[in-house]
Each structure stands twice: as structure tokens, then as C-alpha cells.
Amino acid sequence: xxxxxxxxxxxxxxxxxxxxxxxxxxxxxNKSVIYEAIxxxxxxxxxxxxxxxTKAEVSGTGKKPWKQKGTGRASFGTxxxxxxxxxxxxxxxxxxxxxxxxxxxxxxLAYKSIFSLKNLEKNxxxxxxxxxxxxxxxxxxxxxSKLLNESxxxxxxxxxxxxxxxxxxxNNLPNLTCLxxxxxxxxxxxYSEKVLLTxxxxxxxxxxxxx
Length: 211
Hints:
- The chain is of the alpha/beta class.
- The protein has helices at 22-25, 31-45, 104-120, 137-145, 163-170, 186-190, 199-209; strands at residues 2-8, 14-21, 124-127, 153-157, 176-180, 194-198.
- A hairpin with a 5-residue loop joins strand 1 (2-8) and strand 2.
- It starts with a strand and ends with a helix.
């Protein structure tokens, strides 16, 4: 099944309508799957380099502080005991790998759910074209600001040679994320207030997610 979507120019004027796949842009959003995809992305970004020293690793003598009996004090075997100042850390963090994988079908469903949600909320805009000839940030900001005043925007690109200039121009805009249609990020898409596609990238995206 196909749905109708409006294509506008940089001034927001409607130019025509195009057909997009219902299975990608008009499904019932599955928020639990979106959550799983975002959690997976954030986990895979964690460095896992936190580390503490155990009582076997901290510096200090291994000599018994005082004799076992007769002092009236609690017995201790070493000053490196975790209950002592400068002692080791009990059950502290060690370097670990937080990354894990989720099924490809789950990721795909998450992307479909996000685009369907943005479409349902009227937060998806399809442009006839977006061109930044010299790759300057100022030019991209001027073009996008005619349509979007939101704090966070994601632009979905087709991956063509001309799109490289758009990416270069967008690198200096902290609230703008440029993504290729086949290299998506659920976290960036979901938390963007608007998602901007070109007519070409919308069609490529539909075919890519409907494989």
C-alpha cells in the first residue's frame, strides 16, 4: 500500500504529492521497540573503561598491623583492607564491554516506527531538493531556517556526492544531524523535533527499510 506525501520547496510551498510506502511511513508506532533500539545504541557507545583497585592491587605492606589477640581491637590481616583509608575497593568497577547486538528486524521496525511517528505528528518534511554548493554552514542554516525553527533537526540524505557538502556544512551546527538513508541513528531521529528528507532520500529510505 502507498500513502500520499507532500513535497515542498525551501519556502514551504507545496509543489506536488508523491507516493511513499505505508509499511515504512504509516505503521502503528511501536514505542517499546524504539526504546530497545535507543538503549542498544547508547550501550554500544559506552566506553566501559572505569576501573578501581582491589586490596590485592593497591600499594602497601602485607604485614599484619597488630597481633591477632590481646590488643582489645578488631583483628586485621592487612592495611590494604577495603575498610581502611587508602585500602582497596570492594566490588568496584572494572573495564568491561557494554555493547550488545539486537536483531536486524528489531532495528528496522524501530526506524519504521520513528518515521511513522514523525509523520503522524506532522513533524516530517519532504523537500524537492536541498543543495549547498560551497559547503558553507551559513548557507545551510539560511536554507533550513526558512522551514525549521526547532532546536533539533535531522536531515536524511541520499548519499550522493553533493550531499557531502551538506554534511560538511552541518558539522558546525550542534542541533543539526545529517544521516544517510542507510546509516540511521534511532536516538538522533527520535529526539529530533523535525525530520527533513529530500524527495530522493525519501524514496531510497522506503526501499531500504522495506527489504
